[in-house]
Specification:
Layout: H1 8-20, H2 25-31, H3 41-49, H4 56-66, H5 70-75
Length: 84
C-alpha cells in the first residue's frame, strides 16, 4: 500500500518552525498538546524527515500551534496567500 509523501516544502517548514522557536523535539511534542496534537518526539522527528505522513487535521493544528496561516506550511512565507 502506497502512502503519499509530505511535500518537501512541508517537512522542511515544520522542522524550520520548530527550530526558529528554539524548541527541541521533546519540548515541541509536549507543547503541541496545548492545541490537541498528541505526539511523541519520535513521531515529530519522522514528520520532519518525511518518513511519516501528517493528516490534514494535524497540519491545521500545526498552523494553530505556530500561529501561522495554513498556506505557509505548504508555500513558505513568500507566497501570494500569506498575510504580510
Amino acid at each position: 500500500m502506497e502512502t503519499a509523501a509530505i511535500p518537501i516544502e512541508v517537512k522542511h517548514t515544520i522542522g524550520d518552525l520548530r527550530f526558529r522557536k528554539g524548541l527541541s523535539l521533546e519540548q515541541a511534542a509536549e507543547d503541541m498538546k496545548s492545541v490537541g496534537i498528541k505526539t511523541s518526539d519520535k513521531t515529530l522527528g519522522r514528520w520532519e524527515k518525511d518518513s511519516s505522513v501528517l493528516s490534514w487535521n494535524q497540519m491545521q493544528k500545526f498552523a494553530e500551534y505556530y500561529e501561522i496561516p495554513l498556506d505557509y506550511i505548504f508555500f513558505g512565507p513568500n507566497n501570494a496567500f500569506s498575510e504580510k
